[in-house]
């Protein structure tokens, strides 16, 4: 580290501040293409009284920006900063790692624009080129993390989860331009509906379950015992999580796709096996950690988010496991139609997973680690109770009102409010996050 004694200026190595660029970029995306656009979409859906009240390309663009833009950039930034810190090794080629950021941002922006202008040219060229940029960015991320992990000979309990999440991330990036072409280049409405119904759910499962959930479970194995003093899960349970969860995701993706493309309904029946495994993982993991017992360190502002996240994980997996019964036993008889699929119910499950578990964990972990990275006493930071209450309220409001629309269309009149409740919560959290990052920059720039 270079230290100028006359000016008091301290040059912080790039590896120690790289997370700032990714975190701030993720915040910009969530307040533009992410949660902001999602809240507007939901408001329009409420005003139209139908989930088909907006252009589906907007939904695709918003969903991709949330998963690759918000979640993906946070995973990248956190991994570049935390993995070397927790393992006591140096990040491999920080400048190469940072180069993934502009590639990822450019790809996300170009693909969002391609979704919006489709089918007007050059939408296909833009969409595929954007996918290529994101693939290069993800490949760089994977390479840097793998080479960094190879810098130590110590094997950690969560290494397998990190490698698995990297694999899912790379697979999603490879599939991305193909998915874009399938959805936006469909020649007829029937072809479009077939492509979306067949491939969107497994693709989103790769993104949300494969990338985010697997990475969260892996990092929880390190953070919860070491940072909070919770019990470390048994070796048998760790193996079940690694092989069971990843196997369930892979089998779910294959069986759902096979069922939709072949018309063989036994594939859909077999898909229930993956739901049960994921539900067992959601229920058993907080039990293994003893997540709700009193911790030695006492009160911590981040802990309430992590506990709530795991409760939402259970809710999401219960909704997923109960889904087949709901579709065939409740929704289909109620509507009298031939399509046993409730967009409202499945969207509620997806929201419980993405906002309830994934986003809640991002908020919780970031509120813990950013003060640590910045050299700030976490006891002197904002408690974030308003963020916690609003985020849980908005999520619950969205899930309940969305499912209710299947029975009472009047619920569309209130569904749009939930998005802006969540947006307010994230705005308060984002302000606190940037304030802590800026405080850390001032502390590292000038010595006291």
Describe the overall structure.
- By secondary structure, the chain is an all-alpha fold.
- Helix content is about 80%, strand content about 0%.
- It has helices at about 20-50, 55-85, 95-115, 125-150, 160-185, 190-230, 235-260, 265-290, 305-335, 345-375, 385-405, 410-445, and strands at about 1-5, 10.
- α10 runs parallel beside α12 (about 410-445).
- It is globular.
Strand order, largest beta sheet? 1-2
In the predicted model, the low-confidence regions spanning at least 5 consecutive residues are: 1-9
- Rg for CA atoms: 22 Å
Main beta sheet: 2 strands, antiparallel
Mean pLDDT: 91
SSE-based structural type: mainly alpha
List SSEs in N-to-C order. Answer: EEHHHHHHHHHHHH
Query: Using DSSP, what is the number of strands?
Result: 2
Distance between the termini: 17 Å
Number of helices: 12
What's the overall geometry? Answer: globular
Give the secondary structure arrangement, pairings included.
Elements: E1 2-4, E2 9-11, H1 18-48, H2 56-87, H3 94-117, H4 123-149, H5 159-184, H6 189-228, H7 235-262, H8 266-289, H9 303-335, H10 343-374, H11 385-404, H12 412-445
Antiparallel strand pairs: 1-2
Helix pairs in contact: 1-2, 1-3, 1-12, 2-3, 2-4, 2-6, 3-4, 4-5, 5-6, 6-7, 6-10, 7-8, 8-9, 9-10, 10-11, 10-12, 11-12
């Amino acid at each position: 580290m270079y230290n100028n004694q006359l000016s008091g200026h301290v040059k912080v190595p790039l590896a120690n501040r790289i997370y700032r660029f990714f975190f701030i970029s993720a915040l910009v995306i969530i307040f533009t293409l992410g949660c902001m656009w999602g809240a507007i979409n939901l408001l329009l859906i409420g005003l139209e009284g139908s989930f088909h009240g907006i252009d589906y390309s907007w939904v695709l663009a918003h969903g991709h920006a949330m998963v690759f833009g918000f979640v993906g950039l946070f995973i990248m930034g956190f991994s570049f900063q935390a993995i070397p810190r927790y393992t006591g090794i140096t990040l491999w080629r920080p400048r190469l790692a940072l180069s993934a950021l502009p590639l990822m941002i450019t790809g996300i922006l170009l693909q969002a624009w391609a979704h919006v202008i489709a089918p007007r040219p050059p939408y296909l060229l833009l969409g595929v080129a954007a996918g290529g940029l994101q693939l290069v960015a993800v490949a760089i991320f994977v390479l840097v993390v793998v080479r960094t992990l190879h810098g130590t000979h110590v094997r950690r309990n969560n290494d397998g989860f990190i490698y698995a999440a990297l694999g899912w991330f790379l697979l999603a990036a490879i599939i991305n331009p193909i998915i874009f072409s399938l959805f936006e280049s469909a020649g007829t409405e029937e072809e479009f509906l077939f492509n979306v119904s067949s491939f969107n759910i497994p693709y989103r499962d790769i993104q949300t379950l494969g990338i985010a959930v697997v990475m969260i479970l892996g990092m929880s194995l390190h953070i919860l015992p070491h940072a909070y003093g919770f019990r470390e899960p048994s070796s048998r349970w760790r193996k079940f999580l690694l092989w069971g969860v990843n196997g369930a995701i892979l089998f779910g993706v294959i069986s759902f796709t096979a069922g939709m493309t072949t018309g063989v309904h036994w594939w859909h029946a077999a898909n229930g096996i993956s739901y049960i495994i994921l539900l067992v993982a959601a229920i058993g993991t907080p039990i293994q950690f003893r997540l709700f017992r009193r911790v030695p360190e006492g009160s911590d502002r981040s802990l309430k988010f992590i506990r709530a996240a795991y409760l939402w994980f259970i809710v999401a997996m219960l909704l997923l496991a109960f889904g087949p019964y709901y579709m065939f036993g409740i929704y289909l008889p109620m509507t009298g139609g031939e399509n046993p699929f409730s967009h409202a119910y499945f969207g509620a499950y997806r929201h419980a997973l993405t906002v309830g578990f994934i986003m809640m964990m991002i908020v919780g972990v970031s509120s813990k680690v950013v003060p640590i990275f910045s050299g700030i006493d976490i006891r002197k930071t904002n408690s974030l109770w308003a963020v916690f209450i609003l985020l849980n309220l908005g999520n619950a409001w969205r899930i309940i009102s969305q499912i209710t629309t299947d029975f009472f269309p009047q619920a569309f009149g209130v569904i749009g409010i939930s998005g802006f409740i969540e947006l307010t919560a994230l705005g308060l959290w984002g302000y606190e996050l940037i304030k802590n990052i800026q405080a850390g920059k001032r502390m590292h720039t000038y010595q006291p």
